Amino acid sequence: MRALELVDFNKMDIVELPSPLAGHGEVIVDTVATGICGSDIHGFTGHNGRRVPGQVMGHETVGRVSALGPGTESSGLQVGQPVTFNPLLACGTCASCTVEHPQHCAQRRIIGVTPDITAAFAEKTAVPAENIVPLSEEIPIAYGALIEPLAVAFHAVRRAGLRPGQKVLVIGGGPIGQSVVLAALQEGAAEVLVSEVDPHRRALCNRIGARALNPATSPVASQVQEQFGSLADVTVDAVGITATMGDALNATRIGGTVALVGMGDPELRLDAYRVSTEERQVVGSFCYNNRDFVDAAAWVNLQPKALAELISREVGLTDAAGAFAALAAGDGTPGKILVRFGSDVR
Ligand SMILES: NC(=O)c1ccc[n+]([C@@H]2O[C@H](COP(=O)([O-])OP(=O)(O)OC[C@H]3O[C@@H](n4cnc5c(N)ncnc54)[C@H](O)[C@@H]3O)[C@@H](O)[C@H]2O)c1
Ligand SMILES: [Zn+2]
Ligand SMILES: [Zn+2]
User: Fold this and answer.
1) What is the pLDDT tens value at each position of the chain, 346 positions in all?
2) Which of 183, 201, 220, 273 has its CA 20 to 30 A from that of 107?
């Protein structure tokens, strides 16, 4: 099979690899489309140290089941069926797994992140049947590749304790911020503002039900105060740098919650008194649990209109390396780029 390998930092090549075989409890998914995630770009440039040369990345994907391994007879899965998969592999038996926090599992591995797993920037991926999430035949199949980032977003707003009727600020209007907008609205947010520096991304956020602000024009907190008539109840920082955590704490009401999902910098400076004396809660958010993933998939299966906005373009495998380079250079793509395998499959 063909795969897109990170052969060195800033260099992707199409390579020929042996096709995976379905082991016990596994199925083979033939890739239809795989999204390029911000974390793949950081892995591509070497910025975050979470990807290594020689690796085949890809964790936001959709495809069709092409083979069922031994021990999957009772899974109900069928060859040809459109599916996505939850890329988080956890032990299932530790203290974290038994309370449904697989993202805390010490044995956690993530398909597309853990370097020794050949993942979904390839024509085929071997996946445990229990991680497979079936999709409706009725939706444009590419929407399935949006489920993983939407699951990140559902988890973030749930970690923030968002309650219906609350006012939400999202900082960063990239694909994760966009997904957080949709998840917040879906979970009952009354209004959602997005702080985003890029005009194309602000325009996209305005089209999916949020109102976008430009943090460069005046302090984010005063713009939020003006738009909401109050500060935000809940803020999700989908950038994760000192400047955005500063904006998040300043623009959230006393006693409110800031969820940190962005991983822009490994170290941040915080205005400590905004947390201590004003009792704001800062919560981390990483990946998702099974419920977040399944809920995101169920919502995508309803084909909400806004999803079409999240996909900016689809490229074939031969143009994928160029798409990585363009995204790393900040080419102004407002939404997701998907690498399409469908018609390329040999
Ligand atoms: N915690 C998790 O489980 C998880 C999962 C996926 C991604 N992430 C992280 O979330 C972050 C966002 O992912 P993405 O794919 O949307 O990335 P992205 O880089 O495409 O988007 C970030 C956006 O933030 C904007 N931005 C930068 N500085 C800003 C500022 N000062 N104020 C307002 N906006 C600003 C940028 O213009 C960009 O549009 C990344 O750090 C990624 O690694 C975390
Ligand atoms: Zn991702
Ligand atoms: Zn575990």
Assistant:
1) 999 999 999 999 999 999 999 999 999 999 999 999 999 999 999 987 778 999 999 999 999 999 999 999 999 999 999 999 999 999 999 999 999 999 999 999 999 999 999 999 999 999 999 999 999 999 999 999 999 999 999 999 999 999 999 999 999 999 999 999 999 999 999 999 999 999 999 999 999 999 999 999 999 999 999 999 999 999 999 999 999 999 999 999 999 999 999 999 999 999 999 999 999 999 999 999 999 999 999 999 999 999 999 999 999 999 999 999 999 998 889 999 999 997 544 3
2) 183
Phi, psi of 99 (to 5 degrees): -105, 25
Q: Does residue 63's CB lie within 6 angstroms of at least one atom of ligand 1?
A: no
Amino acid at residue number 63: G
How far does the centroid of ligand 3 lie from the alpha carbon of residue 130, in Å?
Answer: 15
Token pair belonging to 248: 């998040």
Q: What is the pTM of this model?
A: 0.97
Q: Which of 239, 267, 324 to mutate to test the pocket of ligand 1 (most atoms within 8 A of CB)?
A: 239
Ligand 1 atom with least separation from CA of 177: 16
6 strand-pairing partners: 12, 55
What is the best residue among 176, 312, 331 to mutate for testing ligand 1's pocket, by most ligand atoms within 8 Å of CB? 176
- CB within 8 A of 186, min separation 6: which ones? 154, 299
Shortest-distance atom of ligand 1 to CA 176: 16
Q: Which ligand is nearest to the CA of 289?
A: 1
